[in-house]
Amino acid sequence: MSSDHLQSAERPAGSAEAPFLELLARGASAEAYEQPVLIARAEGRPTERIAALEAAKAVALRVRSELEGRRRREAELSALFETAHDLAGLRDLDAVLRAIVQRARSLLGTDVAYLSLNDPARGDTYMRVTEGSVAARFQQLRLGMGEGLGGLVAQTARPYVTDDYFKDDRFQHTLTIDAGVRDEGLVAILGVPLTLGHHVIGVLFAADRRARVFEREQIALLGSFAALAAAAIDTANLLTETRSALTELERANEIIRDHSGVIERASDVHDRLAELVLRGGGVHDVAAAVSEILDGTVEFSEVAPTEALEASRAEGHAVRHKDDDWIAAVAAGGELLGALVLRGHPGLDPVDQRTLERAAMVTSLLLLARRSAAEAEQRVRGELLDDLLDARDRDPRLLRERAARLDADLDATHIVLAARLDGAAADADQEAAARRRLWSAASHLAATRHGLAAARDGGTVLLLPLTAGDTATELARRTAGHLGTAVHEAVTVGASAPVRDLVDHLDAVAAAYEEGRRCLDALRLLGRSGDGAAAEDFGFLGLLLAGDRDIAGFVDRTIGQVVSYDDRRGTDLLRTLDAYFACGMSPARTKDELHVHVNTVAQRLERVGRLLGADWQSPARALEIQLALRLHRLAAPTRH
């Protein structure tokens, strides 16, 4: 027996944890923690001493487990940080993806890790990176969309795990896939989706050649690596697009250099436009700069003479319009974005003409960049609202953080609005384009109002804050008018009642959306297309539309003043109203029912008129009042 063990066994019972602290300090294996207890038993130590050692051992093992867990988490975070660092300095996409797959395999401790990507051109998916694979056929697999475990992950956009691949019938087995998996000897497989926006672009896998149960933390870790892989692919795509744009600019420079006599001037033009773009200048800044260079007046216009604009677009050059104007189409990818118009300049030499054309190209790049940024923000706002509607993310802190980045306050009182176009589209393409315009206009409105917007159910849903002194009805009408003006079509908007504490009650957002949709449908059925309204605008019909069936609110709005008057004065106006309607609105029969003089009935009804308004006996108001009286009577406690 070693001297260390003898000294440990001879210590008093109060220091039972000492040997275990030494084991923790030197990072001993879990089996070593049994030694102090075994030694004490072998030496015939008292029961109390052995019990103390057992208790200290249990605590030490828990501490050891916690330390190991922390070391593991530190290793995971370190790997994620290193991968993010690789992504930040992305030069070679394959190298980054290989690093991701290698680190995922290492941290999950699996035999194999691999990544597949979808190939839209061929309509299948292929193996992009493998780590730990030994079978050539497996490394070269190509499989159809929806096949295998990866197909299930891509179809559902959710992680899937199988403990035994060949015994799992949740996904479609094929001879090709099964042969490759069998060659590799895989048994347990975990797959997580690689997503860009709402689209699955591939799957990241971790697999073992033996049966294994993947823990939730391991699934989450692989999902984090998948998110980094998707970001790397997206970054590479953006770099490719940027290089393409830069190639176009270089081609423009080559054309300018062909004119040796004016190289300096053309270079100056290019430098000024490039500097303007790098400074973050906008379309009108480009127009002002070109105006100075060409010594004329250049304007950007979304509307220009059709014939000249189409000629410029078709030829790819600036064309003369009338005698003194020149028009250069601003277009990208076949889409016409507007035109640069040079006014009062009858003659242009080739360099000046190319200057105007290059300015049009830079303008198109700026417009596309601005649109891309706006669309990215719109997608983020839409994804947050989708999560609120579907109650996907129930962590209030994360929801508030996501909203704060979009300058939205989820703790404020909000209104959920359902908006839809009412014009009939000629075909499916026109209808889709109209919906995109509506979504774009709604997203812009939401951004300016510190709210959220998303496309949903063939229309658009908005979550807008309700300001002090405003009502759901007024907000719905303003929104209908704003969107209708923006898309040049009638837009109908249904609004919910105010929603409070929506972060803590996520289901309330979905319920409010359904209420807004019912109001929207009611407006269209009533022939009020292009208008906006809330449930409270429909009187007692609002009870049928409201998601929370605010009966008390309806009764209070309809006969609340009469109820309060009776409570304060001890009068019988409610009873008189009940009798009056029960007697067919006849004062004579009412006085017999109540056993009072007819003048008393008349006086009471006059008081009712002063409380409810002069039109209280009109058919529509009378119907609402009778319904409110019955609901009030049903809601009142039963008297014995």
Q: How would you describe the overall organization of this protein?
A:
The protein has 640 residues and is an alpha+beta fold. It is 57% helix and 15% strand. It contains 23 helices and 15 strands. The chain has helices spanning 3-10, 18-25, 35-42, 47-88, 93-108, 136-139, 148-156, 175-184, 216-257, 263-278, 283-294, 306-315, 350-390, 396-405, 428-448, 472-487, 507-525, 541-545, 551-569, 573-582, 587-594, 598-612, 619-635, and strands at 112-119, 124-131, 142-144, 160-162, 188-196, 199-208, 297-301, 319-321, 325-332, 335-343, 414-421, 452-456, 459-465, 491-495, 532-534. The strands form 3 sheets. The protein has a 6-stranded antiparallel sheet with strand order 3-2-1-6-5-4, sandwiched between helices. A 5-stranded mixed sheet has the order 12-13-11-14-15. It has a 4-stranded antiparallel sheet with strand order 7-10-9-8. β5 (188-196) and β6 form a beta hairpin. The longest helix has 42 residues, at 47-88. It is flat. The relative contact order is 0.04. Residues 1-14 have low confidence and may be disordered.
